[in-house]
Design a protein that fits this description.
Elements (H helix, E strand, L loop, with lengths): L6 E9 L2 E11 L4 H17 L12 E5 L11 E6 L2 E6 L2 H16 L10 E3 L5 E7 L9 H4 L8 H13 L4 E6 L20 H20 L3 E6 L6 H6 L21 H17 L5 E4 L10 H18 L5 E5 L14 H15 L8 E6 L31 E8 L11 H10 L5 E7 L22 H4 L1 H12 L5 H12 L6 H8 L2 H8 L8 E2 L4 E3 L5 E3 L2 H6 L10 H9 L11 H19 L8 H36 L2 H25 L6 E2 L11 H6 L1 E2 L5 H12 L8
Parallel strand pairs: 2-3, 3-5, 7-8, 7-14, 8-9, 9-10, 10-11, 11-12, 12-13, 13-14
Antiparallel strand pairs: 1-2, 4-5, 4-6, 15-16, 16-17, 18-19
Helix pairs in contact: 1-2, 4-5, 7-8, 8-9, 10-12, 14-18, 14-19, 17-19, 18-19, 19-20, 20-22
Length: about 725
Amino acid sequence: MRNKLATILFVLVGLGSSLSAQRVVVRQTESSPQSKYAAGQLTKALITRHYTTGSKAGKADFVIHLAPNRQQLGSEAYSISRQGKQLTITGGDARGLIYGSLSVAEDLLNGLSLSAINARTEKPHLPLRAIKFDLPWDTYRHSDALDLHYETCRDTLYWKAFLDMMVANRFNALSLWNLHPYTYMIRPTNFPAATPFNDQQLAQWQSLFHAIFRMAKERAIDTYLVPFNIFTSPEFSKAYNVNPKLNNLTHFHFIDGDTSAIVKRYTQECVTQVLQEYPDLTGFGLTLGEAMGGMSPQQREDWMKATIIDGMRQAGRKTKLIHRIPFSSTTGSLGVTSIETEKLTRKSIESEGALDFIEGPIWADLKYNWSHAHSTPTLVKVHGGKLYDTYFKPDPTAYKITWTVRNEDFFCLRWGVPDFVRAHIADNNQSYVGGYFLGSETYIPAKDYFTKSGGPVNWKYAFERQWLFYKLWGRLLYNPATPDAIFKAEFVRRYGAPATPLLEAYALASATPLRLASAFDFTWDFSLYSEGMMGFDTQKNVAYISVNQQITQPTLDPNYVSVSAYVKTMETGGSFSPEKITPPILARMLETDCRKALQLVRSINVKANRSLLYEVSDVQVWANLGLHLAEKLQAAVALQTYRATGQEARKQAAVQHLKSALRYWDTVIAITRPLYNDMPLVHLTEQKGHTWEENNKLRFHWEKLRPDVAKDVEMAEKAKPDAEK
């Protein structure tokens, strides 16, 4: 409705020591759910910023216009203009209008008056800025660390808070992943026994999903359902006489695929019915790998066309599509990349892009640096190994490449390195890049199982603890030129002026996991856990990274030099080019940055604010982990040199460095023990030599690793030169 008066606020604004009445009116010209959401967020900010509100209409002292969308601005863009006592927010579309309103709301919450808000225009750098969210029911892996989120994720208040965070940080898509989502959402018409719930139970599940998709639409967030393949419900398998060899009732993912006619028909019909019963669901996703063993790449693509793609066709509406690029070029569930598979996949995606029921572009997704994107911004590999150039040459028209930034490295400690995110985006600025997915496979950001009881904190959910992580990635993906001042202001808004140094401190201290992952090569999820300084040992168990492993492990980043390569080169009189980061250089970088971070937070008084205590403590933990790593690197160089030369002084230097590393580890324990619980960790669920029940009881805390850290000292003290072995 044109010229609709959506919200009238009478507010008293504090000016110095006096109060001055100021009447503010927010006017909408449209009544769409997105416009109402934009007006509502402005209203909340105005109420928070001012002292009291009234309810009677009258002459306005200040008017905020939410103007009609103007397509010439461009999708997701917005402009803000001010003339006297009138502020106009214009969006290129509904999403842009929300972003413009949130930008004004942010200014208000940071203390600006309406008359001080500057005119500006902003537009998106990348069209897709998505969250990858693994649902805690029917999870990819089996672990208490995932199951404990079950009730939290069934609460619509959680999703409201999470979606509010997403839109505030300019994320525009939510992808929901689990093995077999259909039976939580529908009772399949022709396979009713596949759903394990009675009508009342199913109605509760359906209400949840409808609420998620509705709230997302109100915030102009696209939603995607991404099932893994090929799975069915245990109830389906039992009721419809599926091949007993392929029942997979426990839903472990590395098994052969069941391509029988009944499973194919069931899957296709589920996709169609879900899309018809959930009109607010935006799209679907394809994953080609899990439970598809024994199938060739072509057979996997054919399966997808016959089930999910055909199910989309029969739904009778347009749907968006994520086509995750497969990693296996073999018939095994775990394989390697190949040019041939790339050619096959590109052909399949392009054929999908030509279908009139698929809304383009298709998002062709790859994992950036496998499972540990928080390493180097340089692309070294994808899941399965090397990435060839088939997807980029020539430039695609039907699809855009997207990068999944997996975080399997820090769940407890807060993180934020703005320049890393900027460098990541700058390195992936090619014309064929469409955006990013941000998320984890081994962590769900829902229930806070980290924080020890002991007083009030300013968060409820786990994702709220990592607010800086989401704010950096989301805002910089939308606009990489977003200044650090935006992130600094958020610290000050939350904790006052004393928190001003925290952004710089985080940028310095939480570079520690990035540097560890750049210097320590990895592959899949469990091969590295940077927060715990853990990785695969020789038996493929997740354990503390010993100094011996630090010596022998290759680096990920080609500009980094491993300890063994460094010592060998130096002992033969060689040298390294200036751009190479050798272990001594890396140690100095860690020492310089981590000591500066500790200095920046030293004077922050945390006694009266427990939330601020956690923020400061996490900086201190990252810094001490960085200093620990610096000492271990120096010890590794000294120890390897001693083994090669027999120089006793180098052995003693190694021992002293390792003793210092242990002292820094003890500092980490002293900081974290009063603050953090012993935590379940999915990385520990496949430890060899233990039963499933034993593994599921394992917990992580830095204190539990102290004996392994101390073993490094004992080992160095007993070390002998290689010539004496």
